[in-house]
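Dig into these lines:

——
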Amino acid sequence: MGARYLIFLLAAASVGAQSTVTAPGAGAPKQQAPAVAGLETPWDARQIVTQMEQSNAKLGPLLTKLSPQRWYDEKGAPSTYIVQWQTAQQEIKDVATTTQLLKQKIDSLAAALDVYFRMEALEVTARSLGEGAERYADRATADQLSAMIAQNFTSRERFREYIKDLATSTEQNFKIADEEAQRCRVTMSQQQTRPPARKNQRK
């Protein structure tokens, strides 16, 4: 996803799924954007997020079992693994916090993107630690970590599809809001430039 498009999505998210603009004195707002085919219901979307939350909860204990400090002290592993292990602990907490916020407002594109990118960052860190586990820890732990990372990736892929549909819906609403705003500007401009009507004067 390009940086410019991401900025647009975040801006569009602030418009909200129910945003409309009307001119002063105008009638009822025009109809809102049609629902996007395939967009998950709020209940289904929360189920997707809950599934990711559960997978992430299982990943935490596996990462905690790793001992990068011992790898460094006893096996000469790079100290980078120690920093990554500490980073992973914080990333797990951040994902848990942002996930709870998203569940409170499941149709927020900005919140969904925040969760997605934090989970992606956690996966990068976890994969690196998994590579370290393969070299400096026991094989069983490395295999468990690899399997859990794969499971989290599958959950996140479904979540990504939800984000794509949500972005399309938000973009449609943003387009309607923009069109309504343009119509308001034209209407108000015409009202301001229209010459006042002359009053009939008696002779």
